[in-house]
Design a protein that fits this description.
By secondary structure, the chain is an alpha+beta fold. The protein has four helices and eight strands, in the order H-E-E-H-E-E-H-E-E-E-E-H. Strands 2-1-3-4-6-5 form a six-stranded antiparallel β-sheet. Strands 7-8 form a two-stranded antiparallel ribbon. A hairpin with a 2-residue loop joins strand 3 and strand 4 (78-82). The longest helix has 10 residues, at 144-153. It starts with 10 loop residues before the first helix and ends in a 12-residue tail after the last helix. The chain binds zinc ion (3 copies). One zinc ion is lined by residues 35, 37-38, 41, 55, 57-58.
């Protein structure tokens, strides 16, 4: 026995269910807005270490070997991260994956702001955090924001215990 195959880290799965610290401020970070310092550039990078949005020029000021930088993409006119980049860090399996050019992306920001409920689409699942209609029944959230925001608000609700206990 050489221990091959015994390298599975069991705690990995549990960790992936927790919203990682770098993801918590994501809803207030404006990816794909123009940079405050370099107004002609868009911020399409996110530094997980500093928890800020960066443009190409800002990125040069961050130590790339110590700061983990993740690239954001603009897909269907909204900011997204590639699922491939997120998967090692967070469980994205219940976020609706949008496919473009062979890449799967997760939308960063809540999609359902101000969306009126549309008729005739009742067979579609609704995001658990907002009124956005998901095109896939196997997913629960339209975006990363909806998934991480929901976890934080759960505290406000009274925990309901099953009456049998
Ligand atoms: Zn940084
Ligand atoms: Zn900049
Ligand atoms: Zn949503």
């Amino acid at each position: 026995m050489t221990g091959n195959g015994a390298m599975v880290i069991l705690s990995g799965e549990d960790q992936k269910n927790v919203v990682p610290p770098w993801l918590r401020p994501i809803a207030s970070i404006k990816l794909y807005d123009s940079c405050e310092t370099h107004s002609s550039k868009e911020c399409n990078f996110y530094c997980k270490f500093c928890m800020v949005a960066l443009c190409k020029d800002c990125k040069k000021q961050h130590n790339l070997s110590e700061h983990e930088i993740i690239k954001a993409y603009k897909v269907a006119k909204v900011a997204s991260f590639r699922i491939e980049d997120l998967e090692p860090l967070w469980d994205t399996s219940d976020i609706y994956p949008y496919s473009q050019n062979g890449w799967l992306v997760a939308f960063i920001y809540k999609r359902g702001n101000g969306i009126a409920r549309s008729r005739g689409e009742s067979n579609l699942a609704e995001c658990e955090s907002c009124p956005y209609r998901l095109k896939s029944l196997s997913t629960k959230y339209c975006s990363m924001e909806c998934k991480s925001f929901r976890k934080r608000t759960r505290k406000q609700k009274n925990p309901l215990r099953a009456p049998f206990y």
